[in-house]
Every structure is written in structure tokens, then in C-alpha cells.
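COURSE: Structural Biology Practicum
ASSIGNMENT: Worksheet 4, Part C
STUDENT ID: 0417
INSTRUCTIONS: Below are two proteins. For each, the amino acid sequence is given first, followed by its C-alpha cell string. Answer the questions at the end about the second protein only.

PROTEIN I
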Amino acid sequence: MFAGLDKGVSNMSVDRHRDIVTAIDTGDADLARKTILAHMDTAAANLVS
């Protein structure tokens, strides 16, 4: 699926991934999983909007 360069680049920003890195850094696997799933939901919604 090609949603366009702007949407793709915005999905790869550092700000959009900071919460994932922070959650992984805590060592809490459940928090990391939830954070990644929420990120993926938001990324998918951004790509199809």
C-alpha cells in the first residue's frame, strides 16, 4: 500500500516512536506490547486517512 510520502515520513518520526523506546526501556513487556499495538493502530489510521 502506498499512502504517499508525507504520510509515510510522518509515521516514521522520532516523536512517534519515543513512547515505544521508553516502554521497552522499562523492561515491562506488557507495557511495551500495549504501546506498540497502540502505535500500529495510529499508524494504520494515519495511512488510510
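PROTEIN II
(use this one for the questions)
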Amino acid sequence: MMEAAGLDALLVISPEFFLWATGAPAGVAAGWRRLGAAMAVIPADPASPVGAVASDLFAPAALAAGCAPLRTHAIWPEALSLRAVMREGTSAAELVAAATADRPADFARPSTFDREAALAQLRALLADQRLAAVRIGVELSAVPATDLLALEAAIAPARISDASLLLDRLRSHKSPAEIALLRQAGAITEAALTAFIPAIREGATRPELGRHFLDLVQQHGGAATAPLTAWEYVGFGTSPWSSPGGVQRGDVVKVDVGAVVGGYSADLGRTFTLGPAPRLAREVFAPLLDAFEAGRALFSPGTALATIHATCLRVVRDAGFPSYARGHFGHGLGASIWSEEWPFTAADSDVVLEPGMVMAFELPWYLDGIGGFIVEDMLLITETGAETLAGAGLPRGLVEL
């Protein structure tokens, strides 16, 4: 893909893309989402390793991940490794002095990190990789406007072009390690949602329900092999966005949730009612479920996402809702700022499903006055179809509790 685009290398900027490219965390300095905290350079030559610029605090992780060459810059924490200078009977002051013997006399740590110092290391890295005067595809979607001119100056005479979409396309194909994390996230999410259902009872408030789901993720996350977090969108009643008061009989309860393992997010959604489902709720949910089943049957290699979108839209409209409109019926899943990652199951998508993609497929509708509705599963595209990573053990219908 780089050869077709006329690129000699890719420059990755965002923390989630840095993790994808290197296998190492971008580190705490990336939290400001400014240029320079961590950067990776992927040469077009497949025989060349991925090089990186990392902060001194997180350089050992990048080194262990195989980044070569590796250039580092200082950030604000003073975190020294004393292992190489440890000697029996030596004082702490002597150990620190030995560990910093090569440090310049005027050394000072920046208040956060020094962009110019990081970009100087990027320039040196490109020289190390013999990429000093080539065409580099940059993740420009992650470069703040205030940093762009500094980036161009730092890597001149190398020429840059926007490779954001190319990187999105590359990341849509998950590696076995990524699929393993997403599989864990899906299993934990489904287990937590199953355990969550008894909490949907009369009087339960939105904050209580949200906290309870997050607690359940931790309780069911013992198998996680990476840091575990979660998110939740639980809403109920006729005003699904505000969910005032507590759950009442007859309320529609929308549960859209995900566990996140090592930055990789699951996404699963189901709809319930407390007691018998009101007539209007049944009328709304029935075509959503029909559209979901029609769209789900299309998830296999070679299917265009635009075809799935058109199918779902047609089913709901043909059921008596000709004005129904929704921009997408799902999205990719992976390590991103939140749970929705490119590509989208949308009318304007040019993406065709391929093995190794992990997708959330959803049919939501939010109707103030009736309630919020969703049915959503998490799918892995295989050679022959699609495997459900989250949702297989839960009924898709409107469940009356």
C-alpha cells in the first residue's frame, strides 16, 4: 500500500497508532495529544524494523518491543534505573551520581515534554534509517495545526503527505494479538451484561446502574491479560438521554456497553423493558430487529458495508417508517479514543469486508417520548463468514423483565 501511494515510510503520531505500530505504550506524555511525545517510523521496506522516538521513561518498553533504531527525549518525571550501578554498601547518593554521570551539567527536565527536543530526535531517527530526504506519509489527522509547521521544518527536505486513511485501512485488519485482546473484551462484556440484568429493577437510578456495570466488568475480568477498563451508556424511560429519577414499570431500558482490554474496546447493546413491553415500544423495536437479522446475514468477506447499510435502512422504512434515517449501522473496533473506529457501515463507505476485520453491528433508534432502543453484536470477519465475539449468549429481542 505504501508503494502504491509512492511513500517510503509512514510516520505515526497518535498514542493508539503508536501502540499498534510498535507494540509499546506511547506513555503518559501522550495524554496531551500534542506532537512529539511518541512517534514511530514504519519504512516501506519490509526488511527494515520500525523505528521510534519515545520518552526516556517509556524507552525500555519500546526497546523491549523491538523498536530499532530508538531515539529518546526527556519528560518531566525523574525515573532512573540504578540496576547497572548497584553495589553493596553504596549510598543512594552515590548510586544516583553514578547513574547520571553522563548527564550534562546544565541538564533540566521540561515541565511536560520539549517538542523541539523530540523533533530533533525524529530528524536523527530518519537519518539513522536513511530516510532523510524521502516522501513520508504522516498521520496528519493526529497532528495539531499549531505543530504542523514545526514538523515540516524538522524533517525537511523530506516531503510529507497525508496518510491518515491509509493507516486506517491498515489498522482495520487486526493481528492475532489484537484479535485476542478484542476476544477477551467481548467475553468480559457479555458476562458483565448478563450479570447486570438483575440490577434493572424498579427504582434503580442511572448513576447506580452505570456504576454497577463498571463494577461487574472488574468482577468478570479475571482473564484479562492487559489493563482493564470499561464504558457504559445505560438509559431508560421515555427520555433516554436524561433518564430522570428511577426505573419504573413499563420503561424501556437501553444498555450499550463495552469492556476495554489493553486499549481494545468491545461494544455490545441490548434493549429491555421492566414488565410487559408497551405497544409503542414493540412497534418500534420489531423492525429494528428485522433489519438487524437481515444485515447480520450479510456479514461475510466480499460484502460492501454500503450494501449492509442500504439493506438495514430499507427494512426499517418498509416496515412503516419511511422517514427513518441513520448515518451508520456500526463501525470497526480496536484501540481508539473511544469505541467507534473506522470503517463505518455507511452509505458512503467504499469498504468491502475482509477476514481479520472486527466490527460492531448495531441497529439503534432514540425516540424521546417512547425510549431508546438498540440491538448490537461484536463480530470478527472470518474466511467464511462472521464469528460473534460478544452477544451470542444473549437474546436479541426486546426482553421483558
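ANSWER KEY EXCERPT:
Q1: DSSP finds ten helices and 18 strands in the chain.
Q2: The mean pLDDT is 97.
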